[in-house]
Amino acid sequence: MKSRLRLALPPLNLVAPDAVVAFALHDRNGQLLRSGQLPLEQIAQAMPTDQVQAILHPGDAIVVTLDLPPLPAKRLSAAVQSSVEPMALSDISDLCIAHGPRATDGSVRVAWADRPALLQAWRQLEALGLRVNALVPFPLAVPEDDPNPDQALQLPVNARWQTPLPRWSLAQAEWRPVSENKRWHSALLWLGAATLLWLAGLQIYAAQLRNEVSTLTATTEAAVRTAFPSISVILDPVKQARGQRDMLRQASGEAIADEFMPLALGAAQILAFAEGHVASLEYESGNLTLVLSEGYTPPSNEAALHQAAAGQSLLLAKDEQAAHTWHIRQADASGKGQP
Question: Which of 38-47, 164-173, 240-249 comes out lowest in average pLDDT?
C-alpha cells in the first residue's frame, strides 16, 4: 500500500537529524495512518514511505504571482528569472527559483528560496534516507483562504495537512543532492567501462599483430620458394635462404651439394608434424638441431620416426634435457649411431 509522509520542517538552518518535526502519514486514499512529533532520524527509521513531502517553514520561501505573455516552455524559465531579479534581495545565482505552468489568464506562480540553506537541508534529509519528492513553500501547502497564513502546520492533524499540493516544487531534479555512495558507484562504473574498452583495444591490437606475423611469414616463405625452387619444404625460411645464398657464393653462382640441405630436407620429411612450429634451426659440425615451439602434435610412434630416418641413412634423436628439441645427422657421420 502506497503511503504519503508530510513533514512540517523547521527553519532550513535548523534541519538536522535530531530536529523534532511534526508529521502526518496518510495512505493513498488520504486516510490518516499515523501522526506525531519525532526527531527526523527516528521518522526515517520508523516510516519508510513511497512519497515524502517536505513543507518549508513560513518565511523560508517567497511566493509571488507574475503576469507573463505567451512564451514557449524553454523561454518561460528565462522570463521568470528576469522577472524575479529586480524583486530579489540577493543575486539570483544564490537562489533556487521554481515556477508552475502559465495559466490561461497569463499568471504564473513563482517561488524562490536561499540556495545554500535549501540544498543543505535537502542533503540532511536525503542522508537520513528520506527520499524527498517535493519541497513545497508554505504558502502553497495551506488553503488560499487559510486564517493563519503565517502559522506553521501543527498537531493535531486537521484539514490544513490535507491541502492538495501543486505538481511543481523547489525539489528540482538538477538540484537533487548526490550521495557519496552514488558518486563512488558512478566512478566505478566509468572505471569498469574504461577497463573494458582498454581490454577490447588490446585484443584488437594483439589480433592485428598476429595477422601481421602470419602475413610476414607467408610472404617470406613465398619469397624463398620463388628464389630457391629446389627447396621443397620450408622449415626456417631465413636460415634456409641464407644457406642457399652461401652455397651460391661458394660456387660462384652455381649451387653445390652440402650436408645442410640434405639434412634439412630429410628432417622436413621425417618430422612432418613440426611444420609451422620451428622456433629455431641450428646447423653445426654436421648436426642439425631443431627447437619447436609449443602447439604441435607430438608423434604417437617415435620408433616409426627412427625407422624412417634410418631409411634415409639419417640418425634421429630427441633431446632428453631440452624440451621440444630434436637432433638429426648423417648415419655415417659418427659411426656410433648417435648424434
Answer: 240-249
Q: Where are the alpha helices (DSSP H) in the chain?
A: 40-46, 73-84, 115-127, 180-227, 237-250, 260-270, 302-311
Q: What is the DSSP letter of 163?
A: P
- Contact predicate 16/42, CB 8 Å: no
Strands 287-292 and 325-330: antiparallel
User: What pTM was computed for the model?
Assistant: 0.54
* Model confidence band, residue 250 (pLDDT cutoffs 50, 70, 90): low
Cell of 165: 499540493
How many H helices and E strands in the chain? 7, 12
Could you tell me if 57 and 9 are in contact, meaning their C-beta atoms sit under 8 angstroms apart?
Answer: yes
CA dihedral 51, 52, 56, 57 (to 10 degrees): 130
* Cα-based distances in Å from 128 to 40, 41, 124, 214, 311: 8, 6, 7, 62, 89
At 199, the pLDDT band (50, 70, 90 cuts) reads confident
- Domain 3-177: give its CATH architecture: 2-Layer Sandwich (3.30)
Instruction: Give the number of residues written for the chain.
Output: 339
| Cα torsion through 64, 67, 71, 72, rounded to 10 | 20
